[in-house]
Amino acid sequence: MAANNKDYKKNRKAPAPDWVELDIKSGNLKHIYVLYGEETYLRDASFKRLSEQLMPENAEMNLISFNGEGHGSQELAKEIASAVSTMPFLAEHRLICVKYTGWFKNGNAIMEEALEHIPDTTYIVFAENAVDKRKAICKKAEDSGRLVEYTQLDEDGLKRIILTILIKNNKKIRPSTYEYFLSKTGISMTIIRSELEKLICYTDGREEITIADVDAIVSARPEDNVFPLVNALSERDKTSALKAYYNLLNNHTSMYSIISLLTSQFNVLLIVKDMSAKGASEEEIAAKLKYKPYAAKMRMKAASRFSKKELIAFIDDTIKVQEKVRFGIMDENLALERLIIKYSMRLREEL
């Protein structure tokens, strides 16, 4: 295990350069930026930073914003293409900000042509969820600009940003509290930033953020809320399983949400089971699931208590339960209770 951990850390990719920040500091700003990737917090922060840096004079006439809402139309492409070629009004340049068109993944001939002939007086910044670099539009964008990807932060990157936020707000946090905080938030910087802001306000007037503060303020992720039930099922503990189920109901979690979360978590356990069988390390499994090591370890422990056949059977049974409830064959609470009792008492030999 120790050797695997070393190999994982050794082979882990170094973080990509922060091209947006480097271009701003050097003054060598490109005329096209396409910011994309799953780390939406950093992507959106760079989008805002670029927009502020490139803000033109007489902004009311020279700043234009568009939102494709996930699927940019041809009419929108024509409108932006027209804006790209329009000269600025009483200013040196104009700025066009565009979000979520999908063109850099699916292609768009109109925008491809517009980007090929972008004038020196126009800057355009895109925020996209995903791109396909094989598309001609991506190649055109790179000819005069940059495609900048924002991938999920590693542990060091997360810690650096979190500590920077805390220091700016004159806050301190112990390592054990920091780990506990991340175990509740996960690794999405959007969620982390939101929860940090609440903690900073809650602890106004004192320096240290404690575990008690985290418990009082930070909301657990839905999958963490349901995990006590999953864990109790793995331990064949009917009393604890039913207690965890009733706790979810008392917190106003619907039956459909509970069964969806259970199905999702048992799919996770199936992935963990397969990866463990192939010799994957705890860190490799955590990276695959995008979980903190502590959360991944808990899933590994739970998965080890089930056979693969049992995990598949549970997922199949959740589908049957949903069908019975949907068609009115069985009361939703009764259906879930029976499923919980069945798997909290069942022995592997029965499968």
Explain what you see.
- The chain is of the alpha/beta class and 351 residues long.
- It has 3 domains: 19-149, 3-Layer(aba) Sandwich (Rossmann fold), CATH 3.40.50; 155-217, Helicase, Ruva Protein, domain 3 (Orthogonal Bundle), CATH 1.10.8.60; 222-350, Up-down Bundle (Zinc Finger, Delta Prime, domain 3).
- The chain contains 19 helices and 7 strands.
- It has helices at 2-11, 19-26, 40-53, 59-62, 74-85, 103-106, 109-116, 136-144, 155-168, 175-185, 189-202, 211-217, 222-234, 238-250, 255-277, 282-289, 293-304, 308-326, 332-345, and strands at residues 32-36, 63-67, 94-99, 122-128, 145-149, 172-173, 208-209.
- The strands form 2 sheets. A 5-stranded parallel beta sheet has the order 2-3-4-1-5, sandwiched between helices.
- β2, α5 (74-85) and β3 (94-99) form a beta-alpha-beta unit.
- α5 packs parallel to α7 and α7 runs parallel beside α8.
- The longest helix has 23 residues, at 255-277.
- The protein is globular and about 75 Å long.
- Residues 1-13 and 347-351 have low confidence and may be disordered.
List keywords for this structure.
Helicase, Ruva Protein, domain 3; Zinc Finger, Delta Prime, domain 3; two-stranded parallel ribbon; Rossmann fold; 5-stranded parallel β-sheet; alpha/beta; 19 helices; 3 domains; 351 residues
Gap between N and C termini, in Å?
31 Å
Number of domains: 3
CATH evolutionary superfamily of the largest domain: P-loop containing nucleotide triphosphate hydrolases
Q: Could you give the order of the helices and strands?
A: HHEHHEHEHHEHEHEHHEHHHHHHHH
Number of helices: 19
Binned strand content: 5-15%
Q: What is the architecture of the largest domain at the second tier of CATH?
A: 3-Layer(aba) Sandwich
The helix/strand class is alpha/beta
* Helicity level: 55-70%
* Highest-level CATH class of the largest domain: Alpha Beta
Unreliable stretches (pLDDT < 50, length at least 5) are 1-13, 347-351
CATH domain fold name of the largest domain: Rossmann fold
Main sheet: which strands, in order across? 2-3-4-1-5
